[in-house]
Design brief:
Blueprint lengths: L12 H12 L4 H8 L3 H11 L19
Amino acid sequence: MAARTYHHERWSDDDDRLLRSMCETGKSLTLMIVKLKRPIASIRSRAIELGLRLPGTRIGLRRKHKPPA
């Protein structure tokens, strides 16, 4: 079985603005996939690059390190 390949263009400023506004208003990841026409991994990685937190996920949050015992 062949690996799935995606042929998407680079993220435009409009795409970034749309992603940012959907994250800020709490839209679902499913809606983002449909509106942006991009795979989940692409949306997640772009959100991380822009420092955005995806609603319903822990993506974009820093992990709290526990002090050594």
